[in-house]
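Let us work through a complete example step by step.
Step 1: write down the sequence.
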Amino acid sequence: MSVKTTEAPRLGVAPPPPSRTRRIGRDTRGWAGIALNTALALLVGYLVLVPVVILVYSSFKASATDLPFDVPGFSAANYVNIFQSGQLGSVALNTAIYTVGSLLVSLVLSLCLAYLFERTDIPGRKFLAPLALAPMAVPVTVTAIAWALVANPSNGPLAILLQQVGIHINVYSMPGMIMVMGIFGVPSMYLMIAPALGRLNPELEEAAATLGAPLTRRLRLIVLPLIGPAVSAASMLLIVVILEGFAIPALLGLPNRTFVFSSLIQYSLQPPSGFANYSKASTYGVLMLVLSFAMLMIYRRRVRDAHRFRVVSGKGYRQTRTPLGKWRIPVVIVVSVYTFLGVVLPVLALIWTSLSPFARPLSWDGLQDLSFDSYARVLTGRGMGQVMLNTAEVVLVTATAATAIGTWIAVAAARRRFRGSTVLFETTSLAFGVPSVVLGVAVLYLYLFVPVPIYGTVGIIVVALVTRFLPRASRLIQTALLQLDDGLIEAARVTGASPFTVTRTILLPLLRPALLKSWLWVFAHALGELPIALLLTGSDNRTLVVELWTTFTSSADFPQASALAVVILMISTIAVWLVNRRGTTEVEA
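Step 2: predict the structure and record it as tokens.
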């Protein structure tokens, strides 16, 4: 009787080759992955690179009031005309004054607040700090309208209050623009400066204090130099935000024809009367693009060199707070007055006007005839249902598409899924440096030329917004990926799980908090993005923020515009609160 035995496989001996069926399935899956990655890479390149190329292309077309693609040949006449005109000098000077002034206001306020909240024993820190960061939840268009109501020289409550002490302010001026943009930029700078101050080792300050150095000298010689990289990086990033900002210069500067680059570009394409000047818009757009990229490169360099200023190590680090002593009460009063006048009062003026029959100052007598009539007119107005539907479609599709594509870009770059994945990830940074008004111009030109039937639809706004928010979405996901260990993924691969199964069952569940945070962030910012929606809007794709702009600037119906602004503010505040709440939950977990 013969016994059939099976020899165990020896170590070092290759297993038998897989069957033909299994090999064909694996090749098919590999080719499918290559095709998917190639298609998505082409899509990202199309979204990010093509609009920039179209904008530069259009700037070399002497088109004037004609579309750039209808003009044959190339010419540098646009640049010659711009540099020879007197308008470039005045607009550049206005832009420089507006940018530097806003930066200084934001820098001083954010440095003071960050130092007080992170390094001192100021009372009420847990209440005042979130209140000082509240402008982060207010869309910039709503901010501009709120300040136009609270600080206009005729009936603004803040203007009237300051007039009683001999101070005259006019929000429709360059100082008014600087003040509003400066306050709006405080949360962005604070969030970048505060961590550097919070991690600063107090031993250096204590040693200087032991030698008799006063507080001002310690701040000047120790604290400020050590947080220099964070301050300069935050400053460069805020300059990009100020340069691309449109709502504040447009709403507060155009009434007196005070132009900066962003408002001039939009004014050239959508003048109150006459024809659009495509040559001027294209050329100024390229100049603005160069400025933004220069600031972005400086920002990246400052972030890269930040390691030279590390003062927190693993031994002997402790965080202590500087006692304010007799200055505790005066300091908390000053901070409270700032938060009330700069944050609370504009929102109160917005709510007050939305409940009033007409724009008027805050008063006890006005409480008698407050009503919700403006909200009723907003919600039941003609065509408002379609506007709401368009807005919902824009923000939901934009948030979903930007998060999905951003996740794929971040995962592909982190896991080296294909050659060039890291380069593709860095390519999205180009979109971050493109101001929104410039991106809107580029997308407008592109889809007037490309035979894709989305011009005048919600789709063209979605395409532009996805391009705009793709860099931030991909970086939010990348930050979460850096915190994940590869052990779980490698273990799943060893068991033979396909990349799709690993992504679906392991990677995406681990990234779920970051995915939700990214989605909500894009949702909130897409809701209030004005310049892109304004440049690409038509009769069939109007959104809430465009309706708000039209109601405030053209109809001059301030109560109804205020009601629209409050509606947008509530939606944005809920989204930002969910983002922050999710972030807090992640930290506690």
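Step 3: interpret the result. Residues 232 and 302 are 7 Å apart (CA to CA).
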